[in-house]
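Quick entry, no commentary yet.
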Amino acid sequence: MSEHEDAQLKALLKRHFDPVATEPIPARMYLRRPPWIGYAKAAMLVTVGLAIGLALPMLRTAPPAPVAASGSAPLALRAARAHAVYAPEVRHPVEVDASQQEHLVKWLSKRVGVDLKVPVLTGEGFELLGGRLLPGPEGPVAQFMYQESSGKRLTLYVSRPNKAESVSAFRFAQEGKVSVFYWIDKDCGYALSAELDRATLTRVATSVYKQLEP
């Protein structure tokens, strides 16, 4: 091709394509999303969905935060007050003493409406003094009293559970100087009260619990 022919070809191409090269880009081209954006969004949604799916089981199985008790349960309060009234008694701490234990257990079982058992706490240093009948919101209540060689006393308070009391775990409460460990099963509510340090009462309460809840 000669130089003259080459120049003519370039001029022809310029005349035909320059108007297209210089015209503005249509607005629809700006509004149209590139195809890869849709795929990217889909991938992002899948990733977020997987993350939520993995996190939900962890949220469901996480234990609730512990709630601090605003006060002692009614069972613990009644037991602590009964202990404070009768434990200091010198001549009449009990209605029926331990020498009549068989009669005591039968009598209180009949009145409370449950076959009662008297824990043996000699291994913990406490001997049974006897027991008495007390009034309660759900009917008669049994109180068994024990004493150690130093004169310290503890009482086991046994009642039919109140409908409003649903505590089943082994729990601790403090009412003034009286410490209480208490729990509720399907038949009875139990509370062990004494003016003892928590470690000692925990040891004794554990023994009582094992004997009453084998």
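second:
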Amino acid sequence: MTHVVRAAAWMTGAIVSFSSMAVAGRIVTVELDTFELMLYRSLIGIVLVVTVGGLAGRLQEVSTRQIGLHFVRNVCHFTGQNLWFLAISLIPLAQVFALEFTAPLWVTALAPLVLGERLTRMRALAAALGFVGILIIARPNPAAIDPGALAAAGAAIGFAGSALFTKRLTATQSIVSILFWLTVMQAGLGLACAGNDGEIAWPSATTWPALAVIGFAGLVAHFCLTSALSVAPATIVMPLDFLRLPVIAIVGMVLYDEPLQAAVFAGAAVILGANLLNLRAEVRPRRHA
């Protein structure tokens, strides 16, 4: 039971961080486009990673080995994160979070291509159930496709790609090296994309605090999630992670008068079931082994 309590404590930090990042993102996107947001967020991240890594004496772990794989990983994450910030400016926060939860299912679908893993019948079933959940949440209308829902679904695919390439990197790279190249490369990508039109907006004094929240909360959220997975199995952590949905739904209702939509929760429940089904299929062979 102790590991469940510790995982719950870490996941509380992750939920607060993800929710704070969403609210701060809504504030920032009023003034900056998503490329500019990512540029300033990454610059803040560089300062944090270098400072903390330097104080911990771990900057020597930063390596240029597999720099190409770092770049591919960060293109995936940069794309996913941009689409995520775009989605939260267009559709209710709960809908964004619910669609984001399909990322593990996209990992399952893409793993045979990236990692050479076998697509089992159970994995295919889980992916199909996840797609049903997407349809319940987005309720697509061919006559008027919702760009916000498309952005959120695209963000989940980007995050899935990032997770797959991160898995390959962790075999030879430390977390400090991965985070360093994450912030540096995404700052470069943000600068290139934000400056494509020849103009980069400078944040106002009221926007900088929200940018600081995004930069700090993003790193804290992933640290807490990783820490939770280190003390408890994914079958426990994943249901705790889904508590983000009711929390952000309440935040959206209180701050932005967003309605609580039954379809969003129903679709999220289907996606959660698909993820748990996939996890159960993964854990069973290991237990037998």
